[in-house]
TrEMBL record:
GO molecular function: carboxypeptidase activity; glycosyltransferase activity; penicillin binding
Organism of derivation: Alistipes shahii WAL 8301
Main location: membrane
Limits of the PASTA domain: 699-753
EC code(s) of this entry: 2.4.1.129
Protein name per the record: Cell division protein FtsI/penicillin-binding protein 2
Length: 753
């Protein structure tokens, strides 16, 4: 018996040991598998990453693109956020049908009044339909919905069992697809109003998400459009492209967790990086001058049926570009900023290049200004190897240097250059002076914005080098962009100091200047003082007795120095007709220059239309000179404190009591209809102030011309009008005529100047 028990016992122990070993082996296998899964299995890591990617997402937080501003801070290009509210109609926050219907009806009425695109009933109907479609209560005994809801719902019910399905009273089916509720995107100011509306002023249970989109806008429209530029599918050019990185800033990032379809919440403590907004770029452009130049050039291009034109206004001592207009003809005959002609068109300039020839003859060849040549009364002549050289006018025969400049004689300068550089074999010295002293063979510093390199030859191993030399003397066989030509003339105005033009003044972030750009000195002096004085006097003579005298002959008000130029264009289009490039460059005041202006226009020879530089480009330059002079009050003589008493020639209207107090002190006499109220003010020829009271009828449009903005706003808004304004100073125009009947809520636009 004992032996049998021992055998049973040992058998049991053996089995226990075997099980023990098996459990140890199983545990070891499980442990090894865990180690493998955690440390070495690529499949598990892949599946984990897939799961995490479905739950978590890294959202890019876009940086706001910097603005491009005028010199006065007016926006030329800026980014604004557009907003759209996307509703989750299956959100738990909308489970209460009573609350939803009350809030939705109120929201529908407010949205209909705000957007005015459809009645409130249409908004309310859409809200109810979207809510019913995405939030449904179904009968659990009707399993047809399971077939439509997919295999996941059917599998879940099978796992829970038939009894579970029978016990349910109802089931909820939710579709969390977001639905846009605004008929269009709204800007920030509109969103600030909309966010106070029902359902939009709370966010319980993720009722909606706000979609933000950064949109680039150009408030000034076509004004300086080619200079400001663009990035995107329609092209990459201008400041927008040249300073793309500075404007773009650096995007941020945030980790977000999926809550429902289309809805994510930020993960607290997740990897987060704030965006860094782009720099604001402050340009040197003066919006006022840009607008005047655009209108003047556009008017001249239309009048002459020209092809394209550019106008540049530059400040002499700083090199800052105050205006740069580039207009080209569209297929329909209108004009738009199609191409940056000022920087990217390198063409034969014609007689404006004679300034370089003048300096070469005076400074390098030491030619006396008394040198006389026969210009043959405009008849064609041969100069060296070049034939058919002629002047565009008749009447001149033997003339000296100064007369040759005033009349823009091709023959005179062709003979002078040939005698000193062609017949003596000094062609290389001529081109060396143009490059090394006048710096005409190099760009002026705007390569980043698309400036094209000029072409002024240094290689005389070409066919007919003598012909090239003669042609160069009066502006052919050389190619310069308008920006390079105005920089050259600006150096003469600046006493010989050539400086690079500046179009971008500084980079800003908020009110802090991060980087400032200033002009660089290309050459401290491009010619001797004697040569500079002589060419400055000659350029003034062009305006008093030469090719620009039709525009600037009167020197009692303002003296101007200028040069005109005309070049016949020889290219593939010449077979279709004669094409010309007409230019004028001027700086003023001639005795103390402050501004340089250039206009270049390309046109085709047409009956009754101009193609010479003076009549073609002169009207635009004249308009710019007059406008700049008339707006610069500091140019006029200052009134001394002593001497006879002087009275104001105009006063602003407004509160009659205040106007009377000012008039009593500053004018000999003030007359008025009423001592109080609001009135217009006029100053007669004897400096007497006449105050005319505004009508008291609130239903009649008052005349607010001559008032300041503060008083005009008060008068108009007190009558219930919605006022928009532009400009500064005193009111000069109003969109509703004085005396017209008005109703509360009517919009009126006033212009100040």
């Amino acid at each position: 018996m004992k032996q049998e028990r021992s055998k049973v016992k040992s058998d049991i122990l053996l089995r226990v040991r075997l099980l023990y070993v098996l459990f140890i082996l199983a545990g070891a296998i499980v442990l090894a598998r865990l180690v493998w899964v955690q440390l070495f299995s690529a499949e598990v890591a892949y599946n984990a990453d897939r799961l995490a990617s479905r739950i978590f997402t890294e959202e890019v937080i876009p940086a706001q693109r910097g603005s491009i501003l005028s010199r006065d801070g007016e926006p030329l290009a800026t980014s604004i956020f557009r907003y759209q509210a996307a509703f989750d109609f299956a959100s738990p926050g909308l489970d209460s049908l009573k609350t939803f219907r009350e809030q939705a009806d109120s929201l529908a009425k407010l949205l209909a009044a705000f957007f005015r695109d459809k009645p409130a009933s249409a908004y309310a109907k859409r809200f109810r339909e979207e809510h019913a479609r995405r939030y449904r209560l179904v009968n659990p005994r009707d399993t047809s919905y399971l077939r439509s809801e997919g295999w996941i719902s059917r599998m879940m019910d099978r796992m829970r069992g038939e009894e579970y399905v029978k016990r349910r009273i109802y089931d909820t089916i939710r579709d969390h697809t977001p639905v846009n509720i605004f008929p269009r995107e709204v800007d920030f100011a509109e969103w600030e109003t909309l966010r106070r509306y029902p359902l939009l002023n709370w966010n319980m249970g993720m009722v909606y998400r706000l979609i933000e989109r950064d949109e680039r806008i150009y408030p000034q429209g076509e004004l300086a459009r080619r200079t400001i530029g663009l990035t995107g599918d329609k092209g990459n050019y201008g400041i927008e492209e040249a300073y793309r990185e500075e404007l773009a800033g650096r995007d941020g990032k945030a980790l977000r967790q999926r809550i429902a379809r289309g809805f994510y919440g930020r993960v607290a403590g997740g990897d987060h990086e704030d965006p860094v907004d782009g720099f604001d770029i402050v340009t040197t452009l003066d919006l006022d001058l840009q607008d005047v130049a655009d209108k003047a050039l556009r008017r001249q291009l239309e009048a002459q049926n020209a092809l394209w034109g550019t106008t540049i206004v530059m400040e002499v001592h700083t090199g800052e570009i105050l205006a740069m207009v580039n207009l080209g003809r569209n297929a329909d005959g209108s004009f738009a900023e199609r191409e940056n002609y000022a920087l990217g068109r390198s063409m034969e300039p014609g007689s404006t290049f004679k300034l370089a020839t003048m300096l070469t003859l005076l400074d390098d060849a030491r030619m006396p200004v008394s040198t006389v040549y026969d210009t043959h009364n405009g008849d064609p002549v041969t100069v060296g190897p070049a034939r058919n050289i002629r002047d565009s006018h008749r009447g001149d025969r033997e003339i000296d240097f100064r007369r040759a400049v005033a009349s823009s004689s091709n023959v005179y300068f062709a003979k002078a250059i040939w005698d000193r550089y062609g017949s003596t074999g000094r062609k290389q010295e001529y081109s060396d002076f143009l490059h090394k002293e006048l710096h005409l063979g190099q760009t002026v510093g705007l390569e980043r914005l698309g400036e094209r390199k000029p072409s002024v030859t240094t290689d005389w191993k070409v066919p007919d080098p003598g012909v090239m030399l003669v042609k160069m003397s009066y502006g052919y066989r050389v190619r310069l962009a308008p920006i390079q030509m105005i920089t050259f003339y600006n150096a003469i105005a600046n006493g010989g100091k050539m400086i690079s033009p500046v179009l971008v003044r500084e980079l800003r972030r908020g009110d802090r200047v991060e980087e400032r750009f200033e002009s660089r000195t290309i050459a401290s002096s491009i010619a001797s003082r004697a040569a500079l004085r002589e060419v400055q006097q000659c350029l003034q003579a062009v305006c008093t007795e030469g090719t620009a005298s039709a525009f600037f002959r009167d020197t009692t008000r303002l003296r101007v120095a200028a040069k005109t130029g005309t070049a016949q264009i020889t290219d593939a289009r010449s077979r279709e007709g004669r094409y010309y490039l007409g230019s004028m460059v001027a700086y003023f005041p001639a005795d103390a220059p402050r501004y340089t202006v250039l206009t270049t226009i390309e046109t085709r020879a047409q009956a009754g239309k101009a193609y010479y530089g003076g009549p073609l480009a002169g009207p635009v330059v004249k308009r710019m000179v007059d406008y700049i002079f008339n707006r610069g009050r500091d140019w006029y003589g200052r009134v001394d404190d002593g001497g006879p008493r002087r009275y104001p020639d105009r006063m602003k209207g407004g509160d009659i009591a205040q106007v009377r107090r000012v008039a009593d002190r500053l004018s000999p006499r003030a007359s008025f209809e009423s001592r109080t109220g609001w009135g217009r003010v006029a100053v007669d020829s004897l400096s007497n102030v006449v105050i005319t009271s505004l009508p008291g009828d609130r239903g009649v449009m008052p005349d607010v011309r001559g008032m300041g903005l503060k008083d005009a706003l008060f008068v108009l808004e007190s009558r219930g009008l919605k006022v928009r304004f532009s400009g500064r100073g005193a009111v000069t125009q109003q969109s509703i005529t004085a005396g017209a009947r008005i109703a509360p809520g009517t919009a009126v636009v006033i212009t100040l100047k």
